[in-house]
Amino acid sequence: GVQAAMQKAVEMAPDAFIPGGIPDPLIAEGHALIGAPVSRVDGAVKVRGAAPFAAEFALDGMAYAALVYSTIARGRIATLDTAAAEAAPGVALVMTYRNAPRIKPVPMIFTQPKAAHGDDLPVFQDDAIHWNGQPVALVLAETQEQAEYAKSLVRVTYHEEPATTSVAAAKARGIEAAAFMGEPLDVRIGDAEAALAASPHRVDAAYGTPRLNHNAIELHAVTVAWDGEELRLHDASQAVAHTAWSLAQAFGIEEKQVRVTSPFVGGGFGGKLLWQHQVLAAAASKLAGRPVRLMLSREGVYRVAGGRTLTEQRVAIGAADDGRFTALVHTGMVAMSPHNGLAEPFIMPAKSLYSAGSFKLSVEAVRMNMLANTFMRAPGEAVGSFALECAVDELAERMGIDPIELRRRNEPDQDPTTGAPFSSRHLVEAYRMGAERFGWAQRQARPRMRREGEWWIGMGCATATYPYYRMGGGAARITLKREARVRVEVAAHEMGMGTATVQAQLVAARLGVPLENVTVTYGDSAMPGTILAGGSQQTAAIGASVIAALRALFTDLLRLGGHGTPLDGLHFDEVRGLEGGLCKAGDGLRRASYAELLARAGRDELQVEGQAAPPLEARHWSMHSTGAIFCEARVNAVTGEPRVTRLLGSFDCGRILNAKTAASQFRGGMIMGLGMALMEKTLSDPRNGRVMNPSLWDYHVPSHLDVPPIEVLWTDLPDPHAPAGARGIGEIGITGTAAAVVNALYNACGTRVRDLPATLDKLL
Ligand code: MOS
């Protein structure tokens, strides 16, 4: 099946079988390791508690930091009394803007290739307050408890200035156009409003999603030490290279003078980038002349590390009698802080999911005095797919068409807003597989048709989608030893996704060596490459880097050791790794072992480095992972309580490289979508902008008992234009899920919730 699909893809686009310009024969030829459900190579060390996280590196003479947070949203510090804290037991120093070392502004994300900071505000350089919760003092003590106690003794007063802390006030101050990664968030094709008005069938509704916070199980933490002008960080990071570069800018030193390692990360999701705490820990360490550990409390994460911003969205769809969309309107606004580079781009799904006669898609922004928001799993798609996919469901019901059938009638055969061909898209097949497995045929078209005792029962579905990204700057180093042992070094990240495992599978398959011969090392800014664990792009970015490094390795092996072997005169792309050596492609008898090639080269080992080809594939092709989410939900007819009883995700994400880790990625994303649908909401006091629920007591995420059985399946059809045929899988699970849940709740009880989370008060 896989080989036939790949063959067909190549026939359809013979000149374009190129991930960034390099042919990838591995997937077409197939291999037992590709797709195998290999357990995490780091699994045992994690469950034994032997995996060190950022706050578990004990350094000699280390002091512990605690932060004092501002209690106003905007203004100036009037008085700052640190005497009592400084006199408290065990306190080494109290750092404020008055004694902090000079720190240059940390570049804001997207402004430069390695920028990763949420804002570009000064850190402890003046008395200005920009959000409620901004750090105003750092207490350093011999123990964490002493630091926490002393922090309670710091007294701060403020000159308050007028602040914008409610959405209504922000709107009154003005709405501006928004952009994402430098691209305006504005697409207009035809006259969508006129087409909408002229359509015989239409929906036109407003949807809202609240501000959401990151709640990775591992708190943001950093352990830092200076050695002269060299800065060393153990960080919880999904961007080690970015963090090293950014801190070098902040402290005015060379990039190579900063080394950031992050071998294990307890969850990332976009939040484990660069925030004030790393900068403050490094500054305090410099000031105190000793190593420092700064672990944010759970409250601290809410005050210091940004999450997802709120959205107000309008989706309007006009349709002809046959269900074909004549107009697709998706507009609305997001809230941003005055220093902020990330407008939540909620129109992304509408750009590529449906063909329509006309489009009007735009995101605008208002500014509020609050912590800068940032990436949070599928920024844009998570909340945009909620609004869009609920609207499609509403239209389907209005027209009396099955919602899957309505989507099928609007399935585009090329990107509907750019005209680019899809690299590979099998969403209709994903729906077919998912519907069959889920038992969609049992669904009642109308709500309140199924009841068991007090519970109304319903089914809903929605489309999931996330773009394929591969950012530039990928590179990898590979060392091959005589006994066919291989070491891969790449400045990438393992946050629980299975990165090292999947890459080891790929490298073992490409080299033709056993899986246990391959060690993938990562999480170190001193290693090659600038690879963000974000945008669901790590697998492709590392994959392309490894392809480039192996190309260099094969070239060197042939050049240095190929003479006198059956491989003499062959070019790197004429050979393949097989059974501990290289062979001529398609001729396993014409071969030489790695041991022989290295011996002839007079080497014990060969080390090479490769730079990934520029990511041109996404310029030529419209590349998106897609999927179909199905939900069965219950609503209590007496209390309104919602319960999700079944979830199923059927995904089309190209070749699945490890069935076990992929299933976990999909499930994890869907659980986060479940939280978004039913529970999560950051509450900010509109009077003063203070986050009111900065804890897992008050900010609810799904617990084990809230999570139903989740089935996942996939088409497994390789994308001919992605390295290893694989598009991203890390973020797509959260997309579509909230809509599927809300559509199922509607199908159960007949109440349509358009404002997340769908809590019981909204369902009765
Ligand atoms: Mo993901 S929001 O790019 O970590």
The number of distinct helices, counting runs of at least 4 residues, comes to: 21
**Can you say what the CATH homologous superfamily of the largest domain is?**
Aldehyde oxidase/xanthine dehydrogenase, molybdopterin binding domain
Question: What level of helicity do the residues show?
Answer: 25-40%
| CATH topology term of the largest domain | Aldehyde Oxidoreductase, domain 4
Instruction: Characterize the biggest β-sheet.
Output: 7 strands, mixed
Which architecture of the largest domain would the CATH scheme give at its second level? 2-Layer Sandwich
Quaternary organization = single chain
Strand order of the largest sheet: 3-5-1-15-12-13-14
Integer count of domains: 3
How much of the polypeptide forms β-strand, as a percent range?
Answer: 15-25%
The whole-angstrom Rg is: 27 Å
Q: Termini distance? A: 48 Å
Poorly predicted parts: 9-17
Structural class: alpha+beta
Q: What is the CATH first-level class name of the largest domain? A: Alpha Beta
Question: What would you call the shape?
Answer: globular
Mean pLDDT: 95
Q: What small molecules does this complex bind?
A: dioxothiomolybdenum(VI) ion
